[in-house]
Amino acid sequence: MKKQLVIYTLLSTSLIALFTLWLITSKEKDLYEEYLSGELVNQIVRISVAPSSNLSILEDVLTAGTITRTQAEQLQMNFSYLTFEIQDVIHMAISIQRTKDTSNNVTSINSDYVLFFIQLDFQEDEIQLSEEQLASLKIMNNLMGKYTKVVGEKLKFVSIDDTKGRSGHFFDYYREKGLEDDYWLELLNGFEKVTEETDSLDY
Fold it and tell me: 126: which strand partners?
């Protein structure tokens, strides 16, 4: 009788320990997913704001035919977001098995745009742009217009005129949506589709 009691006690203790471990593991998993969801929203904010910010600057540059050092630095930073932030998001999608597709024209073409601004030779704070450079900027401007349209179609609580950031409502809404929602994948797929229709730079 005592032997059976010991066995039952051990089994009960083991089950309680396993259940406790499962609860802890499940809680840790939920907390980690919540953290990743927040980080993802932060990245989507930078990715979704960059096109409209670029569009605003590029239109000013094309109108003037000149570009300032400050404008070039801002454009370079925004195109870097569209290169490296998207690259990070794609890697995350692969790691959590939301996609198997590793090809991405978006990061490739935007890295070319980053290089364009790195190669600008600023002897002064403002330089005159050549016809070839203006032609390249028009290609960028066209693509940023398409990206901005994609952002307006794929995301809620956004304004295409917003070049600074997103509202707290935007952040709360998409953090709640989490990783399982397809909003971020649909945004990247939209970017990819319009990028495939864009000419490469010739410089």
Answer: 68
Burial 183-198 (b: 16+ CB within 10 A, else e): bbbebbebbbebbeeb
**pTM, entire model:** 0.80
Instruction: Give 141-175 pLDDT, tens digit per residue.
Output: 999 999 999 999 999 888 766 656 677 788 788 88
Task: Give CA–CA dist 179/97, Å, rounded.
Answer: 11
* Alpha carbon distance 4, 100 (integer Å): 53
> CA-based Rg of the chain, rounded to a whole angstrom?
24
Residue 88 CB coordination number (10 Å): 15
Distance separating alpha carbons of residues 144 and 199, to the nearest angstrom: 13
Beta bridge partners, 128, equal 66
